[in-house]
Amino acid sequence: MIKRTIQDIILTSLKTYPVVGILGSRQVGKTTLAKTIKKIAKPDAVYLDLELPSDINKLQDAELYLRQFEKSLVIIDEIQRMPSLYPLLRALVDKKRIAGRFLILGSASPELIRHSSESLAGRIIYHELFPLNYFETGTGQFKKLLLRGGYPNSYLAKNDDESYIWRESYIKTYLEMDIPQLEIRIPSMQLRRFWTMLAHSHGQLWNASKIAGSLGISAPTVRRYLDILESTFIVRQLQPYHTNTKKRLIKSPKVYIRDSGLNHALLRIKTFEELTGHPSIGSSWEGFIIEQLVALLPENSQYYFYRSNAGAEIDFLYFDKQNHPVPVEIKYSLSPVLSKGFWSAFEDLQCKRGYVIYPGSEMYPIGKNVTALPLAQLKIILKT
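Below the sequence we write its predicted structure tokens.
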């Protein structure tokens, strides 16, 4: 059993909020986490899985059923399958507002589920569960996590072949079952082609017209596809940072497939040796490190990339506790070299410090106020 970083945060939220939500993609470990929390904090909690017909049956008269558990925690898994519960949860909470009444688990963002975003406003706090990160796995080795990604079933598979087969099955299930359950009508083959195209342009600027032309559909349609993959926690859109500088800045987001293992499955990369010889190794490492950083940063942190038309560029930009911009460059090289574009951006933003994340094992200064940092020491970024 791997302890998830977010576990203690959720336990604290259950002491304050009447409804706590755990969001994350399918098979990311939400159910396991919820059952762990039940065991630790609320052994008498009621658990409902809305993928089970028997549990759906219990909610034929949902108000009557749920009212009998006013003093217990009720865990509702895959709540996006029954969006009509949201207004009822609001009514029950308003009638008896106490902390820790409901723990709901969902595989889609509140914006994608009817009734959800407005129904529980002011009554709920959401936490996102990411795939396993480097510090949760505790292995000291990043190669397995980079190749297989952080979905527990993929990462913990007996070998790379089993991991790859699981990820292929995951993609098929997502396209053929999960998306239709959200009442989204898109041909699964069309969405797979789009997803595969994103894998081949992983880490690049979003270009709707180019992708639309390749698929033979309109730009608004591919924009809708992208929003669906983002709202189901498959894709991350990293927005550009705009400042008051007089520089002309890039305005399109960069798009990443969030889990490196799914990205590699779409590219048909099965082993680490294949990955290191593949042209996508640099962008794969970049997306992988960005996910590690986002998982470590405080919730609701703001982060961006920076690029000007003049060539100034930073892979990842966040703000520290003093609200100073901190640039992070990501290089898959044991001898990383910073480009002129990085130093131009460093100067544009008047940064006081910066980092280069690379796959080595030693921390050392690589330039004035810039430190080369191995993955194992990534947490140093947050301590300074």
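The chain has 18 helices and 14 strands.
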